[in-house]
Amino acid sequence: MRKEFADALSRIARGEEPDKASLVILLSAQPGEEEEALYREADTLRAQYVGDEVHLRGVIEFSNHCRRLCHYCGLRAENKNLRRYRMKKEEIVESARRALELGYGTVVLQSGEDTWYSAEMLAEIIAVIKGMGLAVTLCVGERAREEYALWREAGADRYLLKHETANPRLYQKLHPGMSWEERITCLQWLRELGYQVGSGNIVGLPGQTLEDLAEDLLLLRSLEVEMAGIGPFIPHPNTPLGTYPAGSLDLTYRVLAVARLVLPWAHLPATTAVGTLSPNGRQLALQRGANVVMPNLTPRQYRADYQIYPGKICINEGPEDCRYCLEGMIRSLGRRVGRGPGHSLRYLSRITKN
Ligand code: SAH
Predict the structure, then answer these.
(1) pTM of the model
(2) CATH of the domain at 315
(3) How many CA atoms lie within 13 A of 171 on its CB side?
(4) 308: CA distance to ligand 1 center in Å?
(5) Which DSSP string corresponds to 211-229?
(6) Which range marks the domain in which residue 295 is found?
(7) How many domains does the chain have?
(8) Ligand 1 mean position, distance from CA 196 (Å)
């Protein structure tokens, strides 16, 4: 093991304020001793800070319409080869009811950026689902501050808005018509409005460097996110990045493990994208820092069309299949399924302080 690696690992794992150079060294962990030591530290901190419970967040992908043109995403407005769908209010509520029956504490309402759903419509849906006793996470992209405020008043608990990359130039290239500063502003609004905030980044984007990934982690730390979604880039053929190679799975695990060191309190999902690149991807992620899995609750007839990237797992399964498959996965790792809403410790300490 390189001495500089061992030094950086022990300093950062002890909770010393991370600097970019040390994070780059950790992210460049070599296969063998270095990676093993990194994963061991991440797993230890995971157990210490967030315990052995693995929280299940049922995701309802309620619309694949999108007004954006993100260069990596299959939902982009210019992809004409996608059958577009929108779930009705009743269908969304019905899916949430399935979540309750399956014992989930939280549903995640996710979609492309689809302004067909007015703020009021979504607020009504949120209120009904909250009334069932479920926690609600939203993941519907950038909207006006007042809309975020309305949803918060309707009862939404959390909001996921990945910053995608902390490199503003790379962000600009991949998101025509969008601005990195505006995305960060949205994250600040969400924080001010009292949401538990989730963000995160894609790993292995064309042109992305280890320095960029170190910046992603520093940004997540400065935002004090309650959750960080970190997944590999997967090329979608009907997008401008369709011919680029997928992000490396090993690099994704390293970013995840270092995220656990610098955000020890955070909920870190073993992402569907990791599971898509490798059959045991999510198991390995859970052993390298992750403590959340996001089972798909989208009704079977829509699943294949929520194609942010191709080959997404579980598109032929129904909601109950995912529930039992994941429970088995979690048990086989000697962990247990989390009960209740699974709010983050950071959030609970924030609200008791105020
Ligand atoms: N419109 C919502 C939800 C987007 S889909 C929003 O803006 O938040 C959820 C996430 O999927 C995105 O944040 C992005 O990080 C990820 N994603 C999209 N296309 C991808 C691809 N080709 N490879 C890997 N991740 C992708």
Answers:
(1) 0.97
(2) 3.20.20.70
(3) 19
(4) 6
(5) HHHHHHHHHHHHTT-SEEE
(6) 3-353
(7) 1
(8) 19
